[in-house]
Design brief:
The protein is of the alpha/beta class. It has helices at 15-24, 46-59, 78-95, 112-133, 148-158, 169-174, 179-186, 216-225, 248-265; strands at residues 2-6, 29-33, 62-71, 99-103, 136-140, 163-168, 190-195, 231-234. Strand 7, helix 8 and strand 8 (231-234) form a beta-alpha-beta unit.
Length: 266
């Protein structure tokens, strides 16, 4: 497996600094938070995109994916969601990123099948464009579709190889789903896995990997047992928890912890 971290943990950090951090601490890639308050977002022009891609290439670090914010199961205008996803796909294509992350975001006051159908329709509509660009769209286990079983209700009907899943281990745990259950649901669709750690269901402040309650060892063991060799991406949510310890100081120990889990699960 290869290791990455998300720039959600280093809000606003310039691209050259991000690349240096990854290279210095042994991370193979970076997940870029694609938002206007960050250095990389769909509003970048062609020259800026080329500069970002060149910076990562020179540093020997991959751009794993773009963490976007389209909510594919949310009520509203299909055209606006479609445009947001396509803009992210174009940016990913220009940067050489393999994945684009989207959220579900269904209205909890509406019947679940309604949100499932809406998400499946919207994802199917952009699958061809994603294929043309060589980018996979990943629906994250998050909010209204917290578990692998929830996400499977959307991905099954879409049935396209460019539409997959992003396993956020915190949300599946909060949803009461065990790692073997999540893997069984998502394995045909799994793009990569977001790892993290927190103290409890009531305190989701980010902690160093291994310092909290999430079943990271069991997740890695399940992946290893099934021969999965994709990416583990540390999503440290510093952007939402300003009091959390700075991520740069934790990156080295975090990589060592993931490496140890891999060794123990082999």
């Amino acid at each position: 497996m290869k290791f990455a971290f998300s720039t959600l943990g280093v809000p606003g950090l310039p691209v050259p600094n991000v690349v240096r951090l990854a290279a210095a601490h042994g991370y193979h890639g970076v997940e870029l938070r694609a938002h206007p308050e960050e250095p990389v977002h769909p509003g970048l022009g062609a020259t800026e995109r080329a500069e970002v891609a060149a910076e990562f290439e020179a540093g020997g670090v991959e751009i794993l994916g773009l963490a976007g914010y389209p909510r594919v199961a949310a009520p509203g205008d299909d055209a606006a969601v479609d445009r947001e996803i396509r803009e992210l796909l174009e940016l990913a294509g220009d940067l050489g990123a393999s994945f684009v992350r989207v959220f579900p975001g269904a209205d909890p006051r509406r019947p679940a099948p309604e949100g499932d159908a809406l998400a499946a329709r919207r994802l199917a509509a952009v699958a061809g464009h994603a294929a043309d660009l060589g980018v996979r769209i990943l629906l994250e286990t998050h909010d209204s579709h917290r578990t692998g079983a929830d996400v499977l209700r959307v991905l099954g009907p879409v049935g396209h190889r460019q539409i997959g899943a992003l396993w956020d281990v915190m949300h599946t745990w909060l949803g009461g789903e065990q790692p073997p259950e999540t893997f069984a649901a998502l394995s045909p669709y799994l793009g990569y896995v977001q790892v993290k750690d927190i103290a409890s269901a009531d305190d989701t402040t980010p902690l160093p990997l291994g310092a909290g309650a999430l079943p990271l060892a069991e997740c890695v063991e399940v992946l290893t047992r099934h021969g999965w060799d994709g990416w583990l991406c540390w999503e440290y949510e510093k952007r939402w928890y300003e009091a959390a310890a700075p991520l740069p100081d934790l990156l080295g120990p975090g990589r060592e912890h993931l490496s140890r889990l891999l060794t123990e699960s082999a």
